[in-house]
Amino acid sequence: MSASTPIVERGTRASRVGLLLAALLLLAAIAAPWWAERSSQRLFTEFLYTLALAQMWNLLAGYGGLLSVGQQGFVGLGGYCLVVLGLQAGLNPFFIVPLAGVVAALVAIPAAAVLFRLRGAYFAVGTWVVAEVLRLLVANTASVGGGSGTSITRTVSGIPAWWRESTTLWLALTLGAGATLAVYFLLRSRYGLALTAVRDSEPAAESLGISVARVKWFAYLASAAGCGMAGALIFITKLRIAPEAAFSMDWTATMFFVVIIGGIGTIEGPIVGTLIFFLLREFLSDYGSGYLIVLGTVAVAFMLWLPRGVWGLLASRFDLHFFPVQRRLRNQALKEEK
What we know:
Elements: E1 2-9, H1 13-30, H2 32-35, H3 38-63, H4 72-88, H5 93-115, H6 121-139, E2 150-151, H7 161-187, H8 190-200, H9 202-207, H10 212-238, E3 240-241, H11 243-246, H12 249-262, H13 268-284, H14 290-305, H15 309-318, E4 328-335
Helix pairs in contact: 3-7, 3-10, 3-12, 3-13, 4-5, 4-6, 4-10, 5-10, 7-10, 8-10, 12-13, 12-15, 13-14, 13-15
């Protein structure tokens, strides 16, 4: 006779293959300063911090249901930490990156206290207002360069060029891979289940004993910290900062575009979306403002006809899950002898 018993799987064959590929890519990226050209390293650095930003926005909107259009406020705040802590306090710029995350999270606390009194579109508008308030405060502060901004070259002037480029790449790799893995392990935990429960229905989550306020606070502060660290890293690569660039809506627009076309509410989505974004930018960069029109058209088309994004389509059609956050039941046949 034969019987079957359900087996709980925490991973899939695709996830194991993905883990192997990720490990190989990670090793190649770590060794990139020894084999890649400097321009390629800069492009890879930009790819990684864009991925980190997208994962943070996806955590907030895709898994937490908190639609923010003001994450550029924390990107700019992280960038200006370089000015205050680097130019004025004399700290090493690479040590400032994690500190920028702490500063962004601290600033997010009073912001969240106000924003969480709002719902839906009012919350989204409120996040934009917070970002604008931060921009205006910085633009009217002469000690950090005011509205015209300031050069931050002096913060890295004592670091050899090879070490500066390499360390920036390694930090970006840590941030991009770290953001992806942090979201993955969070979603496999009880806290991740609580987060998605709050997204789906706050009253139902409360009836199960979930502290809705605590979960939303955690998601907002974690996203702010990630954006703050990415902001500091971004302006280490640019070496000049101004309020209009640091607090530009373009940062949030990029996060939105990447997550929407890749697949909102999936960990793989931001990875795929970032890749598509860079490919489109490369092919359309010669068309000037037409490039932005195409990106906007693509985003609208995806929202109308492919709301689950590219990865959502692939996952449903081929049952692909490189980062499975749900346990799966599989029946295994057992043979019994009389």
